[in-house]
Amino acid sequence: MTITFTFDPVVDPALRDGIAQLWTDVSNAGGAVGFVPPVTVDDIRPELVRHLVAMAEGRHRLLAGRDGDGRVVACAVLAFNTHRLQKHWVWAYTVMVSPELQGRGVGRALMDALAEAARSLDGIDAIRLGCRGGHGLEHFYASCGYKEVGRVPDAIRVAPGDDRDDITMLLPLH
């Protein structure tokens, strides 16, 4: 399956709704993208709106992946730092691949496209991302060239009695 990645796509209702549906599907499949199942598009929408506002303000940049039918099947957000001493790196947020495509190389393609997008930004030397422990995500990101640079045990409470590590990963771009 060919996925076409677009950095800074035009945000129209189809893209907005496609991301909302993707985020819902990923969350309900157990993906570690800020929600715990079950969720609906209505649960996701306020967080998506925050990203869209940040994009409109120039604080976030979107990478969207679409399949041959134009359906949003992958996405990630790059967020700029506002602190003057940290403007040389960006955060990667809301990294998602459709559950039906996981394990087929789409995640790796997304991460490669995300690194290329970050390299296109003036003055950006690295990407940092946080991931939730308990899913083995740190191993996937390590296979994409990221290094674990920090871990806070039990920092993410998924449910009472289910605390997960908050893992920080870094990808130098040079």
List the helices and strands and how they pair.
Layout: E1 4-7, H1 13-28, H2 41-56, E2 60-66, E3 72-80, E4 89-97, H3 106-119, E5 126-132, H4 137-143, E6 147-159, E7 162-172
Parallel strand pairs: 4-5
Antiparallel strand pairs: 1-2, 2-3, 3-4, 5-7, 6-7
What can you see in these coordinates?
- Helices cover 30% and strands 34% of the residues.
- By secondary structure, the chain is an alpha+beta fold.
- A seven-stranded mixed sheet has the order 1-2-3-4-5-7-6, sandwiched between helices.
- Strand 4 (89-97), helix 3 and strand 5 (126-132) form a beta-alpha-beta unit.
- Helix 1 packs across helix 2.
Low-confidence stretches: none
Q: In DSSP terms, counting alpha (H) and pi (I) runs of 4 or more, how many helices?
A: 4
Our Rg estimate from Cα atoms comes to 15 Å
Distance between the termini: 30 Å
One letter per element, helices H and strands E, the order comes to: EHHEEEHEHEE
Number of strands: 7
Question: What does the overall shape look like?
Answer: globular
* Average pLDDT reading: 97
Strand content: 25-35%
Portion in helices: 25-40%
Largest sheet: 7 strands, mixed
Strand order of the largest sheet: 1-2-3-4-5-7-6
Would you kindly provide a brief summary of this structure?
By secondary structure, the chain is of the alpha+beta class. Helices cover 30% and strands 34% of the residues.
